[in-house]
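Running co-folding for adenosine-5'-triphosphate.
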Amino acid sequence: MSAPVCEARNLRASYIPGMPIVFDISVIVDAGELVTLIGPNGAGKSTFLKALAGLVLVEGGEVRLGGQRISGLPTHEIIAAGVGFVPQTSNVFSSLSIEDNLISGGHTLPRSLLRERVQRAFEHFPALADRRRAAANVLSGGQRQMLAVARALMTDPRVIMLDEPTAGLAPKIVHEVLDDLRRLAKSGVAVLMVEQNAKAALRVSDRAYVLVEGRNHMTGTAADLLDNDAIAEAFLGFRRKS
Ligand SMILES: Nc1ncnc2c1ncn2[C@@H]1O[C@H](COP(=O)(O)OP(=O)(O)OP(=O)(O)O)[C@@H](O)[C@H]1O
């Protein structure tokens, strides 16, 4: 059996050495899957995602990409190895044009490939193509997220990680962004996201992990977790009618 696209095993991560926020979290994401991390505030979901991207100190366990160990590498090498990371905030350059945002996302690429990838991004996201020379700050919240995802895709990552991609968006736009991510996973990329809009996120996800206090609490198919009364009540904010 081939190695999963991305696998974190018994990860321990901290901002301050010796003071872990993530104690022991294991997660697997494979090609074509949309996997969501849910859990209460402060559970360490964002910290875990940052640890995968090399933005937070990994003190134990390991992260593998296609079987190759990437934990411990500097962030630029992790990105070059095939990880795309979309932070929750400041994920586009507001004053740069949409096209220049894409170019900056692919600045490590040779010029000919860069042109090709910008073109590909505009084909995937026609709403961005229509306004390619406009500054990113004219975009709506949903379109900005689209641009942030398109930037991360410039390097052709094997796995793309998103920290709360729907934060601050209107409910209708939340669904549009989640549907875009669903389509992205279907295209063959492994997608891992942290989401506060847990119910909406589970509806488009294949699988999910519930994280609590820096540890795995539960995992399953998104459908099973949506159907689980205890999970629904504790983490999804609804109680099923009996
Ligand atoms: N830059 C930082 N330096 C030190 N501690 C931090 C930093 N960022 C977050 N923390 C702490 O790490 C803990 C976990 O935060 P994290 O953002 O990973 O949780 P989360 O599960 O994503 O929750 P939320 O949904 O509230 O963001 C919190 O106690 C937070 O205060």
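Result summary
The mean pLDDT is 92.
The first strand starts at residue 6 and ends at 16.
Job closed.
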